[in-house]
Design brief:
Elements lengths: L6 H29 L4 H37 L6 H34 L3 H14 L3 H16 L4 H21 L11 H25 L2 H5 L9 H33 L3 H17 L1 H19 L6 H25 L1 H5 L6 H33 L3 H23 L5 H25 L8
């Protein structure tokens, strides 16, 4: 499907992903919200474990972005007959990659956490959480493959449905297993991990069943696995490998941030957890526009409309900034209510307020800079996005290191997000305006 650089097409692609983002955010904060009412240690452990698992998932999702860019390019060129082969090769890579990630989570995470975390109780509970969460990674990677396909062909409604299935299942199973309701055993943090894993299984199954019943599989020639295409695999890896490294730098820096905060104490980590969940709520629309920018830029180039790319990116940035501006205003009007979603502890809510104001500023910058970065990768310049990320994360971690040498509040640590996104926006803007990406051929 060929897309147009209109507000209507941007919203048509973005809104279903945005609604799906709401469901994904619910999924992301449900475990913490339930465990926040069990105990501070359990909430901290789910936060650390959740961030670690999120890092692993995002690395896998980075692999999917490569195939998404290629599928969007073929769709723009009206070469739909080649899309099935790209999907099949990508799915095989995803499954192989999920095996590697599973062993990283199951066997290496305990060694890593024992080396860097300070609280023994948090370490023990985090290891328990990750042990049961690890099995969900296989289904996450299958879902990512289908998600990349549907975004690439600009049919994103299915993403909404799958996400709500996951969120609904997660809430129900959390309610049953975390607290032991309706005759089920009270499992605490184990129950939360079970709930998320079961939800991921249901999400992947929904994608498969949906694709079968609406005949997407037959129409696009998916799951035929006719033959191994070295050229196709190498193109996917050539696009994806830099994004994998980019996400590794980005998510690794995010995880290191939480390790630094954990060393400040369990109460400070609890504050960081609440702020992380609040950040996810505010950022919901941004990921939708981020996804749209990546796919639509590639599609536009596939149509031979490279000269219209900047106009498209500008429109997406305006919508992103407007959406986030409205959400930030609402959050500033009812900050205690927003923060109370993650915890009922009045002291944690009160102490989170300064950090809350900082992330509101950071999110507005994020609404613009993330679109610019996504547009860069959408042109196929994934190596450039990797270099940008490496430079910025080095600056970010250096900033955090300086702060650890000073006696500053946790709110000051969150100012690193402002530095991070401001620098990313400037570097991405300069590359896009240089027009060097026009020389890239996929």
């Amino acid at each position: 499907m060929q897309v147009k650089s209109t507000y209507r097409d941007i919203l048509r692609i973005s809104l279903p992903v945005m609604v799906a983002g709401i469901a994904q955010t619910i999924l992301g904060i449900t475990d913490t919200a339930f465990l926040g009412r069990v105990g501070e240690v359990e909430m901290d452990a789910s936060s650390i474990g959740g961030v670690f698992y999120f890092v692993m998932c995002m690395i896998g999702m980075a692999l999917g972005i490569g195939s998404q860019i290629m599928i969007a390019r073929k769709s723009g060129e009206k070469r739909e007959n080649e899309i099935g082969g790209i999907f099949d090769q990508s799915l095989v890579l995803m499954i192989l990659f999920s095996i590697v990630i599973f062993f990283l989570i199951e066997y290496l995470s305990p060694l890593f956490l024992n080396s860097y975390l300070k609280s023994k109780e948090v370490i023990n509970q985090t290891n328990i959480f990750l042990h049961y969460r690890a099995f969900g990674i296989f289904f996450v990677m299958i879902a990512v493959s289908f998600r990349s396909f549907y975004v690439g062909i600009a049919e994103t409604k299915v993403i909404t449905y799958s996400s709500f299935v996951m969120a609904g299942v997660n809430i129900i199973v959390d309610y049953l297993l975390v607290f032991g309701n309706c005759g089920f055993p009270k499992l605490g943090i184990e129950g939360a991990a079970f709930a998320s894993t079961i939800a991921e299984v249901c999400g992947a199954l929904y994608y498969i069943l949906h694709s079968v019943f609406i005949k997407t599989i037959s129409n696009y020639g998916l799951l035929r696995f006719k033959e191994f295409s070295k050229a196709s695999v190498m193109k996917i890896l050539n696009l994806s490998a830099p994004i994998v490294l980019q996400y590794l730098f980005s998510m690794g820096g995010w995880f290191i941030f939480f390790l630094v905060i954990e060393r400040l104490g369990e109460h400070q980590l609890a504050i960081a957890t609440v702020i992380r969940n609040t950040l996810m709520i505010i950022m919901m629309p941004i990921w939708a526009y981020f996804t749209a920018a990546n796919s639509m830029v590639s599609n536009e180039i596939g149509q031979g409309k490279s000269n219209e790319v900047w106009s498209l990116v500008t429109k997406i940035m305006k919508l992103s900034a407007l959406s986030i501006g409205i959400i930030i205003i609402i959050c500033l009007l009812i900050p205690e209510t927003i923060l109370s979603i993650s915890t009922s502890d009045i002291h944690i809510i009160h102490d989170s307020m300064p950090s809350f104001y900082v992330i509101c500023v950071a999110c507005f910058l994020f609404s613009i800079s993330s679109i610019l970065l996504s547009a860069v990768s959408g042109t196929g310049a994934t190596k450039v996005t990797m270099i940008i990320e490496f430079i910025i994360i080095t600056l970010y971690l250096s900033y955090l290191y300086v702060l650890t040498q000073l006696n500053v509040s946790i709110a000051v640590f969150w100012t690193g997000e402002i530095l991070y996104w401001f620098t990313m926006g400037i570097m991405s803007f300069l590359y896009l305006r240089s027009n060097r990406w026009k020389k890239i051929i996929l």
